[in-house]
Inverse folding.
């Protein structure tokens, strides 16, 4: 049986939306050195030295700070990389991500 072709085209509508974004949060502890926190902020989160120091002091004073807002994959990757660096140096630095 031959297939019939029609001249009617179906329209498909796609709803595109921005990907959900996630906040990366760094927490204060009594063991991780301030210099190491600045190092993490400059090397992993690409903060300027002045911004990294400001964030480090904010974490020190208020127990936590948002260090960036990223897509899910980027947030997970940065948290894992920073946590791995901290464990390799023997620090219990804690970072998490949560929806914005």
């Amino acid at each position: 049986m031959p297939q019939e072709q029609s001249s009617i085209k179906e329209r498909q509508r796609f709803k595109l939306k921005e990907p959900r974004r996630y906040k990366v949060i760094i927490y204060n502890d009594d063991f991780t050195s301030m210099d190491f926190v600045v190092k993490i902020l400059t090397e992993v989160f690409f903060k300027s030295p002045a911004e990294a120091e400001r964030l480090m002091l904010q974490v020190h004073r208020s127990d936590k700070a948002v260090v960036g807002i990223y897509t899910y994959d980027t947030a997970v990757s940065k948290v894992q990389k920073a946590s791995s660096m901290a464990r390799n140096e023997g620090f219990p630095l804690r970072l998490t991500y949560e929806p914005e």
The mean pLDDT is 92. The CA atoms of residues 40 and 85 lie 8 Å apart.
